[in-house]
């Protein structure tokens, strides 16, 4: 029988875990590296299990008793049904497992399982909504580089394009371009090597330069303004009535609030909880619905 619940938020940059007892009392938290399914199924499980182990150690539980644990996971990459099936099949022994997108777990955390909408913006981006009738709506989440508008990786890709043009002499560069060039090695040859090795996480690492120079550099500012318009478009597609509570979530959610069009910014309310909290809610509902909890 299940005695502990685990909530996992896994993305392209990092992983957050919450450990709770069956009655909902939170016992510990832990973090780890990326566990998006695009990183590979084995790597995702390795990262998650290491973070679960840290949480159990912090709660003085010892080695994770997987057979007494239910785990809820909101992971980037679950849109790929083949990856999701492989991940579930590789369950290392958890007594119960619920898997959904990190967008859905973020939605569950942000509005406490009630109707509402979120745009989650971190390494990637996605919009999720639960309508008043319980219907689920998803917008975006197509993945980098084809989608993930307004995300850290999306911003980084545009920053890279800018420095390519600066290095070519096609446009003038300022402090923003110099910082990005320096981060990527400092020379044209070094940037070429960086490009050959770069993945989504690497591109997302450049977003901080966009944000840092947004008030002073016209190129960085244009990227942020464009990102704000993309977020507004996702929000409109999620909730055409504009009546549901809307939250911006993820590592770049609060940053982009200032760059939203005014009508969208006026609708935004702070999220109640994070994606790991939402994943805990997912597994809690599953366990209660299937009567798998430890006897009282």
Rg (C-alpha, Å)? 20 Å
Cα distance, first to last residue? 11 Å
Instruction: Indicate the percent of residues in helices.
Output: 40-55%
Trace the largest sheet across and list its strands.
3-2-1-4-5
On the 0 to 100 scale, the average pLDDT is: 93
Bulk shape: globular
Report strand %.
15-25%
Main beta sheet: strand number and arrangement? 5 strands, mixed
What is the H/E string? EEEHEHEHEEEHHHHHHEHHH
Total helical elements = 12
Low-pLDDT residue spans: none
Per DSSP E runs of 2 or more residues, the count of β-strands stands at 9
Structural class per helix/strand content?
Answer: alpha/beta
Overview of this structure, please?
By secondary structure, this protein is of the alpha/beta class. Helices cover about 45% and strands about 20% of the residues. The protein has a five-stranded mixed beta sheet with strand order 3-2-1-4-5. It is globular, with a radius of gyration of 20 Å.
């Amino acid at each position: 029988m299940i005695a502990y619940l685990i909530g996992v938020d896994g993305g392209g940059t990092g992983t957050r875990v919450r450990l709770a007892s069956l009655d909902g009392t939170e016992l510990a938290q832990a973090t780890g590296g990326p566990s998006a399914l695009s990183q590979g199924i084995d790597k995702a499980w390795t990262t998650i299990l290491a973070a679960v182990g840290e949480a159990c150690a912090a709660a003085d539980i010892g080695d994770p008793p997987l057979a007494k644990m239910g785990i809820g996971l909101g992971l980037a990459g679950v849109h790929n049904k083949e990856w999701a099936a492989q991940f579930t099949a590789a369950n290392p022994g958890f007594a119960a497992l619920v898997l959904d997108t990190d967008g859905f777990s973020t939605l569950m955390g942000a509005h406490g399982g009630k109707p509402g909408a979120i745009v989650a913006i971190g390494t990637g981006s996605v919009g999720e909504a639960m309508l008043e009738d319980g219907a689920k709506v998803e917008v975006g989440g197509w993945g980098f580089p084809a989608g993930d508008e307004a995300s850290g990786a999306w911003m980084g890709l545009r920053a890279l394009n800018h420095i390519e043009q600066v290095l070519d002499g096609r446009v003038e560069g300022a402090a923003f371009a110099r910082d990005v060039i320096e981060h990527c090695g400092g020379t044209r040859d070094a940037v070429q090597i960086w490009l050959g090795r770069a993945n989504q996480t690497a591109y997302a690492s450049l977003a901080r330069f966009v944000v840092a120079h947004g008030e002073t550099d016209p190129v960085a500012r244009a990227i942020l303004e464009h990102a704000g318009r993309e977020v507004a478009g996702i929000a409109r597609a999620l909730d055409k009535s504009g009546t549901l509570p809307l939250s911006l979530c993820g590592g770049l959610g609060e940053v982009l609030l200032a760059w939203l069009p005014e009508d969208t910014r006026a609708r935004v309310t702070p999220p109640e909880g994070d994606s790991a909290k939402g994943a805990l809610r997912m597994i809690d509902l599953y366990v209660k619905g299937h009567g798998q909890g430890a006897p009282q």
